[in-house]
């Protein structure tokens, strides 16, 4: 193994300064690579959470997946449907439109805070889509959810406008 001339690193052609040993350099490089791998895994995880529908297009009835695929308490973004599918703890489903009722920006689901946040003017909405701010005094619109042979479907023909969230906006299989 080639040894670095610590007195004069330039003498042996190495560009590594005497303050950074080869071992330190390798250690830093490995950490940087580890960090990059973690970022890539995180991005893959986010993409995984952004599901696509099985069939249908936005503007019509979309088949989203098997009912049992959705964990109670979860919020899944259905990217091509422009909505978030909320699975309630008691087995119900609610599909809320991603469009902010203020000026139409796309709201983001904040998993850690368990709320929706609009990046444009910071309006926030509860997990049910209910507004919890003064800027936008109405809930996120929603789409009807139905069930057919164990499959979950969402009718995205037209979002339903609502003042506030009500229990009857949640659909239950069977
Ligand atoms: S567009 Fe969402 S808060 Fe203004």
Structure description:
With 174 residues, this protein is α+β, with helices and mostly antiparallel strands. It folds into two domains: 17-50; 52-169, Rieske [2Fe-2S] iron-sulphur domain (Rieske Iron-sulfur Protein), CATH 2.102.10.10. Helix content is 16%, strand content 24%. The protein is built from one helix and eleven strands, in the order H-E-E-E-E-E-E-E-E-E-E-E.
* SSE order: HEEEEEEEEEEE
Q: Describe the sheet with the most strands.
A: 5 strands, mixed
Number of domains: 2
What's the CATH H-level superfamily name of the largest domain?
A: Rieske [2Fe-2S] iron-sulphur domain
* Rg, Cα atoms, Å: 25 Å
Strand arrangement across the biggest beta sheet = 1-3-4-5-9
Helix/strand-derived category reads alpha+beta
CATH topology of the largest domain: Rieske Iron-sulfur Protein
Mean pLDDT: 83
According to DSSP, the number of beta strands is 11
How is the topology of this model organized?
Elements: H1 22-49, E1 50-51, E2 61-66, E3 75-78, E4 83-87, E5 93-97, E6 108-110, E7 115-117, E8 124-125, E9 142-143, E10 145-148, E11 151-155
Parallel strand pairs: 1-3
Antiparallel strand pairs: 2-11, 3-4, 4-5, 5-9, 6-7, 7-8, 10-11
This protein binds FE2/S2 (inorganic) cluster.
